[in-house]
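Q: What does the assembly look like in three dimensions?
Context provided by user:
Components: two
Sequences:
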Amino acid sequence: MKSLFTNLFLMSLAFGVFSCSSSSDEANSQEAVEVVTEELVEEATNDNVFYQMPTPNELFAVLKNSDAPFNKEILNDVSNSGNYLTKSSKALNFGVFTADLAYATSQGSFEDAASLFEAVKSLSKDLEIENAIDQIIFERLKENLENANADSLFYLSNETYYSAFSYLEENDRQDVLAMIAVGGWIEGLNIILNLEPYSEDSEICQRIADQKLTLENLLIFVSDIENDKLTDLVSDLSVIEEIFNQESENSNDESSESEVVNSTNEDGVMVFGGGNSVSLSNSQFDQLKSTVMDLRTSIIEGN
Amino acid sequence: MKRINFLTIILLMAMPLIDFAQSQRECYNTVSFCETERKAGFTKNMQSLSGAFAQGDTSEVQIIVYKNMEYRISVCSPSNPEFLGKFQFKIAEDVRKGAWKETTIYVDSTYEDENYDPQTVKVPKIQRKRVYETTEEVRYDNADDEMSQDFVFTSNKTRKLKVKVYVPNAEGEDMSSGLSGSSYACVGLLIEHQPGVISGFSR
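A: Here is the predicted structure of the complete assembly.
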C-alpha cells in the first residue's frame, strides 16, 4: 500500500480552546514557552500495510444511546435513484443510500428503510453488483421489513454493504469500491452533523470528531487508485481533512493525551484506555457542516 | 538460443509476482471461512481482510475501533490448517506523547563594571520546549496469551489500531526462492463487532 503522511510539523501552542473533549484553560506553566516543536516519528514504508475503515452501521450504532430523534429530511430522496447516469454518480449514491439505509434501520424507521432498500437494489443492478448482494440477503431484508425486526434489519444492512465490497474487491473494481466508500462516508458524516446543534460533551459530537481517524484511512485508500473522478474527490476530502486538522493545532495541551492503560471490565473483556483523544471545536463543527453539505449536495445531484 | 534464455530469465523473475497476483485472487474470500461468533451477538466487520500473506512475513492492517463497541479479532487459514494455533498477532497503537525538554542557552547580559563601562557577558538560561513524539505501544500480543487465535476487547475511546499478523513458515519450506506456490498462505483476518454493554446487565 502506501506510506503515510508528514514527517515534521512546527506548531505554536494555544490555550483556552473550547472543544468537545475537556479543554484545558488553566495556566499550564509558570515559565514562558518560546517555541513548541512537534516531532512526529517517520513512518517506515511498508507494502504489507492495509488501511481499513468501518461501515456507516458502526457509525450509527452510537445513536442507540442518544436522544437525537430520527430526521427523515436529511436522507437522500429515493426518487433521485433513477437520475444518476454515470458510473461514478451511481457508485457514489449507492454509498449514500446504503448509509441512509443504515441510519434508517438503526432508528427502526421501517417505511424509509423499505424505500431505501429499493433504491440500493436498483443501483446495485446498474452497477452490476446485484449478484454480489446475495438474493437471500434481499429476501431476508424484505422479510424483516415486513416483520418490523429492527435489529435484524440493522444487521442485514451491514451485510449488504459488506457483500458489495467483497464482490468489488474480488472483481478488482477498486474505483467503484472507492466511490461507494466515499459516498457512504460523506453521507454518514452529513447525517450526524445534522442530528443536533454543537454540544461540547455530547457523544454525537465526539463521534463527529472521531471521523478524523476514518478520513485518514479513507484518503490513503482512495488516493491510491488512479481515476479522474477520485482525484477530484480526494481534493474535496482534503479540504475536510484540513478542517479536522485545525483541532491539532489547538490541542497540544496535556488534556489530549494520557498514559496507555489496559484494564478488564466486569465481563472479563479487556478495555483499551488512555492514549490520545481527538476533539472538535464549535468553529470546526460549523465549517464541517457547511463543507460536507456542499460536497454531499454535489454528490446527490449527480455532479 | 540467447533470446530463449533471456525470456526464461524474465519469466523466472516475474513468477513471484504472478504467483502473488494469483494467490491474491484465490484468497479474496478467505475470511468468510473463519469461524464467527454470531451467536454471541457479533456482526462481521467490513475491516476484516482476506489475502495472500507471505509465509514468514508480517502484514499490518490498520483499523478504526469505536468507543464502547466490542470487537473480536481472529485469524484463520483454511488452506493451511497446520497454521492454526501458530499465527502470532499483535495489536498496537501509535501514541503521541508530549514531554518538556530543557535546554540551556546562553544569552547576552549587560552590566556596568567598576568604571561604569557597559560590559556584555554570556549567561546561561534554561529554555523549556514542548516536544511531541509518536511511539508505538503494544496493546495485546497473543504470544503472551498462549497463542490464542482470537481476542475480544473494547475501547474507552475511538482509536486507530494496528493489527500485525505474523504468518509462520510451513515446515521444511525453503522461503528464499519465492517461486513455490506455497510461499503464500490464504489468511483471513476476521474482525467482528457488537455494541458494547453499557450497564453490564443485559449481556
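Follow-up: The beta strands of chain B are 43-44, 49-54, 58-65, 69-76, 88-112, 118-141, 150-155, 159-166, 184-195.
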